[in-house]
Request: fold
Amino acid sequence: MIAKRGDPGIEDVTLRPGEFHFGGGATRVHTLLGSCVAITLWHPEKHIGGMCHYLLPQRGSCQRLTRGHYADEAMDLFLQEIRSACTRPGEYQVKLFGGGNMFERSCKADASINVSRKNIEAGINLLQQHGFTVVAQDVGGNRYRRIYLELWSGDVWVHRGAADNTQGPMDLCPR
Reply:
């Protein structure tokens, strides 16, 4: 069962677009996704992990946004934390979320501007490239998602919103 927001002893961390968190203990990390993607990592022995919330696959010519806004640079942040914890990518349970096509009508006409699809592909490719194994994913579609990662257990909870949401929060592949 998911611990409620504001429960004593639990630190709630909310990620905005481009933000990143890595740690452990009684911490729950939360974010809201549309076309953006979140990657969650959790180490089942050390009970550490984190989440990133990226907007775009790579920096390109835009220099205004910080590192966490791009999939490749968010991956660099994860890899730094993994090295600092003396762990390896293959030891983590990895889950991928988001990439909802929030502009479905406009993207059907021009697949080159389908940011959500490109975000999903970037996440999958980077995870494979660095030796991670994805154990669960909830990507694509045309709805937003609220994601909750509980660092004490590794459980990830997803609340799907908008048009086709017929369920409340659900546990997605707990340990």
User: Anything to note?
Assistant: The chain is about 20% helix and 30% strand. Residues 47 and 105 are 42 Å apart (CA to CA). The helical segments are 71-84, 104-109, 115-129. Confidence is low (pLDDT under 50) at residues 164-175.
